[in-house]
Amino acid sequence: MQTRESRRQKIGRYGADVSWANTPNRTERTRNGRNAGPSSLDWHIERLDPEKFAEATGEQKVKAGESAKKAYYSKLAMKSAEVRRGGGEAA
Length: 91
What we know:
65% of the residues lie in helices and 0% in strands. The protein is mainly α. It has one domain (7-85). The longest helix has 28 residues, at 58-85.
């Protein structure tokens, strides 16, 4: 069943289309958003325990950040599998 698109939705879609039509470098435009989330290695490095990593080298922080990122996605996969099995809620 199709629902009628509201005027506000049409205006919003129009504005988004105009905005993207005027964006020559889409990757650059969305860079800040990508870097601000868990898909970014920097996001995980920023969340390392500052006391534990106070004397760590940059390389050590990168390795720890990579492990933290892998652990984050492993946890998401386990939660997803549990919900699909009917054993829990996603959250």
